[in-house]
Specification:
Blueprint: E1 6-11, H1 15-27, E2 33-38, H2 41-50, E3 55-59, E4 61-62, E5 65-66, H3 67-76, E6 83-87, H4 95-101, E7 105-108, H5 114-183, H6 186-216, E8 225-228, H7 229-240, E9 248-252, E10 258-261, H8 263-280, E11 286-293, E12 297-304, H9 325-329, H10 338-348, E13 352-357, E14 363-370
Parallel strand pairs: 1-2, 1-3, 3-6, 6-7, 9-11
Antiparallel strand pairs: 4-5, 8-10, 11-12, 12-14, 13-14
The protein binds adenosine-5'-diphosphate (ADP).
């Protein structure tokens, strides 16, 4: 394979040294160099900034200006190519100054050996490339962090702006509903009940968005206390049963345990699992909720008799915004955030959440939670993590 020649810009005011370097460079095997010579340092600086080349070889002694000053000037003007400084006899003490000014290496012209020069050229070019790659990566990371921060700020602002009118809408809808409840107007009561349900759905979506930005910004808050696990499960079943027309939610087992954790957040997970069971198993009429415990943990299982989830996608459904093809195709609404948020909550509460499912055989979503985490602060004290 034909090697691409390496173009070297040589800034050297001494013609003899130019000839010497040319001789050394042309003698080299396994490497091809294209040497471009400039004897005037100021023109050299211009050519550094405008001419195509891979590396600059620069003499330390350049008459009115020395090589180190030239390096400083070039670097301050954004010159990004590797620079190797050529020093004369007894000038090795300027090496540190040269590196500080922005040189990549230096070599003495005295007793110049072709293999050393070749290695220095090659290494300087490769090191510079790696340095540029690293800088590019860092600046890309910074840009993406800044973008993420902007995105989170934007979502927070949208959430806030949406929440205010929605809260007022909800209050008005509730007043209307109460009024129709009293007047016994069935038709209007049904309409306002539906209105209330839709407002609640919207509020949940907004809340999910807010949670995602909190998770990503590391700001998801937990308010922990001891609570009765079975009582929470019963409460939520009672809440969801009336709105789930098709399904009967059956309860099996008890944990008989008091758990340390954020009751609201854990309730949010249970609600999500129960709502999903009603949403994604529309052609069945049963959901079974099982609770159990051992000395260290409580376990909750929500079993539905829907289409199930293919094995290879059982992990993916916990990713943010991920929805199965079937869910996307049908009119079942959702953003694919509920399981992601649930996963984060259970993980932060030091538990584990997973799904057991066979296609066509329904799904069982499960989580376990430690009863009393070792580092739990005193009972009853609210802790924001
Ligand atoms: P959403 O319900 O808003 O889409 P989730 O994060 O709760 O978001 O669920 C992600 C996806 O996992 C759903 O879109 C659906 O495809 C799938 N899924 C969740 N629960 C079930 C279930 N019980 N049965 C079948 N698929 C489910």
């Amino acid at each position: 394979m034909e090697l691409q020649p390496t173009t070297i810009l040589l800034i050297e005011d001494d013609e003899e040294d130019y000839f010497l370097l040319r001789k050394v460079l042309t003698k080299m095997h396994n490497a091809r160099y294209n040497l471009v010579w400039e004897s005037d340092p100021m023109l050299g600086l211009q050519r550094m900034l405008t001419d195509q080349h891979d590396l600059c070889l620069l003499d330390y002694r350049l008459g009115a200006i020395n090589g180190i000053e030239l390096i400083r000037k070039a670097r301050s003007q954004g010159y990004g190519k590797p620079i190797v400084l050529l020093t004369g006899a007894n000038e090795s003490e300027i090496d540190i100054l040269a590196l500080q000014a922005g040189a990549d290496d230096y070599i003495s012209k005295e007793g110049l050996q072709e293999d050393i020069l070749r290695r220095i050229i090659r290494y300087a070019i490769e090191r510079k490339k790696a340095e540029h790659e690293r800088e590019k990566l860092i600046s890309e990371q910074l840009a993406s962090q800044a973008l993420e921060k902007k995105r989170n700020e934007f979502i927070s602002m949208v959430v806030h702006e949406l929440r205010t009118p929605l809260t007022s809408l909800k209050a008005h809808a509730q007043i209307l509903r109460k009024r129709f409840l009293l007047s016994g107007d069935e038709q209007d009561l049904r309409t306002t009940t539906r209105m209330n349900t839709q407002i609640d759905k919207l509020a949940e979506l907004i809340s999910d968005f807010q949670d995602v930005t909190r998770i990503e910004g590391g700001k998801l808050q937990f308010r922990e206390s001891y609570f009765d696990f079975d009582e929470l499960v019963s409460e939520l079943i009672e809440e969801i049963q009336p709105v789930s027309e098709k399904h009967t939610i059956l309860r099996d087992g008890e944990s008989n345990k008091t758990v340390w954790g954020d009751r609201g957040r854990i309730g949010q997970v249970i609600t999500n699992l129960l709502t999903n069971a009603t949403k994604y198993a529309p052609n069945s009429n049963r959901i079974v909720v099982r609770t159990s415990s051992d000395n260290e943990s409580v376990t909750l299982r929500v079993q539905d008799f829907g289409p199930g989830i293919p094995k290879h996608l059982q992990q993916k459904i916990f990713d943010p915004f991920y929805r199965l093809e079937e869910a996307r195709k049908t009119s079942i609404s959702g953003l694919g955030l509920g399981l992601y948020i649930s996963f984060e909550i259970i993980q932060r509460q030091e538990g584990r959440i997973w799904v057991e499912s066979e296609e066509g055989q329904g799904s069982t979503f499960c989580f376990t939670l430690p009863i009393d985490r070792a580092h739990a602060p005193e009972a009853g004290v609210e802790a924001a993590i």
